[in-house]
Structures are given as C-alpha cells and as structure tokens.
Amino acid sequence: MGHIVSRASFLTINRARCIILPLIFNSCSYSYSSVTHTSTSLKISAMSVAALASTPKIKTRILIISDTHGLKPKPKPKLSTDASTEDELSQNEAMWTYTGFREPLAEADVVLHCGDLTKRSRVSEYRDTFDMLRSIRAPLKLVIAGNHDFALDEPYFYREWNGSKDTVDAVRHIITNAKVDGVQYLTEGFHAFTLANGARLKVFASPYTPSYGGWAFQYDDGHNFNIPSGADIAMTHGPARGILDLAGTPGSYTKAGCPDLLEAIYRARPKIHCCGHIHEAWGGRLVRWREGDGGPTRIASVVCSEGSEQMALEDLMPDRSTQDEETVKTKLNNLIEMSQQRGAHVDLSEGPHRLTPGEQTLFLNASILNRRYQPVHLPFLVDVELDKAEVTGLI
What we know:
The protein is α/β, with parallel strands linked by helices. The protein has a single domain (12-28, 39-387), classed as 4-Layer Sandwich (Purple Acid Phosphatase, chain A, domain 2). It contains 9 helices and 18 strands. It has helices at residues 49-54, 91-94, 123-135, 154-161, 165-178, 259-268, 299-302, 313-316, 325-341; strands at residues 12-13, 57-65, 110-113, 140-143, 183-185, 189-194, 200-206, 209-210, 218-219, 233-236, 246-247, 254-255, 272-275, 283-289, 303-304, 344-347, 360-365, 380-387. Strands 1, 6, 7, 10, 13, 14, 15 and 17 form an 8-stranded mixed sheet that branches. Helix 3 packs parallel to helix 5. The chain is globular and about 60 Å long. It holds the Pfam family Metallophos. Residues 61-280 form the Calcineurin-like phosphoesterase domain.
C-alpha cells in the first residue's frame, strides 16, 4: 500500500473499527490443495527447538475470527452499480461501512474462531454460527467457546440458568453435524491436526477467562493454562494481561487480561496467540520476547518494547473536513482493498515481519463485533510456516 516501515521489535495494530496497520497489510495471492481432510484431535509431545528448526516447513494460511455472537458476514448485494468494486464496498459505502466481515470470507487452510459463538446461547444462534463456519472455504475450522456460550458449560448452565437438557442436546447435535464440513469444537487442551496442505498444526485451546459478571467458563483464583512449548498456536477466548486487553472507553480503560495466561504464553512462546472477548481491544501486536528477571511475569519485564509502531483510527479513515481530496481518495481506495482482501493480512512466513520461532509471538484480538455489538471489525488472515507432517508407511 505504498508504506515503507523499518523492522521493529514489535508492531501494534490499534483497536478501532476496522483499522489495520499498512505496515503489515499485504496484497496476497495463495493456492490451496483440492484435497479435503478432517483431522482428529490428539495429544502429542513437545518438540525441541533443534528438531523444529530441522523439520521441513509448509506455508499455511489461517483465517482468525472471534466474538461473532451469532451474526453472519454481510451478504453480497444482488446488484452492483459500481463495476470497479463489483460486490465489494462502493466509494460511498466505504465512508460508513468499516468492515471486512463480508461474504464470502477469505479462503484459508484453517479457520480459528476464538469463542463467543452466541450472544444469549440460543440454539438458533449456534445453528447460524456453525452454518456460517461450515460454509467457509477451508478444509478445517477449529472452534472454542466463550463466556456467552453457557450452554456449552453444562454445570454452569444447569446451576445458574436452570438450563434444559433439550437445549444442551440440540447444541451438541449442531456441533456433531458440523464435523462433516470440517468444523471441530475444541475443549481445553492440546490438539494436533494434519492439514490438507500437508502441514502439522499444534494448538492449545481454552475458553476460560477471569470472573466478571457471572458468565460461563470463568475462574476466580487463577487458572493453569498448560501450554506446551511445542504449540504453534495458543487459542483462548480471553487476552493475556497487558496485551490487547484494554476494556472500557478512552480515559477509563482497564486491563482485563489474565496474568496467568501471559506467563503461560511467555513460557511456551507459540508462534501465534489469538483471542477475542474484549471487543474494543481488536488489533494485533508482534512481540519479541526477552528473558524475565525471575519475578512475577509482567509485560514490561518480558517484552522488548523498543521500536514499536502504532497507528490510530484517524490515520486510516478518510475525513473530507480535514483532508485534501487526494488523501481522501487514497484512503477510500485502501478501505475498498481491505474489503476485497476480506481481512487484515499478516505475513509471518517471509518479508520484514518473518517470524523467528521461540523469539517472537504474534498476538491477535480478532473480535468481529465492537462494543455496540456491530460486526465492523476485520478478520485476520495470517500466513505462517508450519512443520511438515510426518508420513508413516503402511503396514
């Protein structure tokens, strides 16, 4: 998009409606295997850093979303009067519709949904969300619950909501039926999958968040996030303490993330940590780790903060009252390009932000809805190198 930025210890995408940093937004093309594959979750042992370095790699595209709360992507219009944008945002729409959550969502090797599948845990909301996931062009879609999905936290649902077994059974039926289209619901733990592109994906998943307001999947006195050092991705509903966790409004933000999760991620150092939960904290941050001081894990003690890059909402949004016509036109075209991309693209496989495993982690808060429960935020589209799956001979 014409921006040249030097390499930084970490970069930040500010929370905002659909804002992405041009320094990590890339136009991209990608090819996909036509072979579909349904993976099975299983336990695996962590690999050493040396073994990881010697294993062949496969570039893999991951589509990441969270907090859709039963809403589907904006459908394609039946007719378009602007041939240059076809079914995308028109120049006029781009001024008022700040979203890439539009049909069809981007094609990927795997999709991650980080929870809050529903708003009120209604069966109809689960049905809509799983239908949406089944329709995405990806062989595998991985899903966890969030605090709004209380029918999936059965003890809580029966105790606090006097929930019915019929509701629980109906939701489980929806989840089971979605497996035929590659949708897999993950409970807390470590799971591994062989992807259709031949890569091995290792994921730690957890729906748990600190107690606030009496919701599902919450804990009062800390939580053990047992993330193995071999995990490629830590996929949790809530954020880590101090990273993409500011809740509230400007001037009254509070850190809502979990310190136990930050410590677990610091120990394991996965390639990616993705979450949602705090809608207004949408964004991304590429962190370079450093060794702590031996005390309690704090963001200031474990993250190298030199050279950060930030961008605010006003830096991307066109404003005819303060900007000249050329600037407005450029920003409008950029917004339309984001819509065509169907997400904020981050390439960790090559280029200036190529990830160094064990030294860096990309943090993403992929909440699609804003604080007003409007689906205005962009999904994330991440390219990353994964280990090639081992091929065993037939006996």
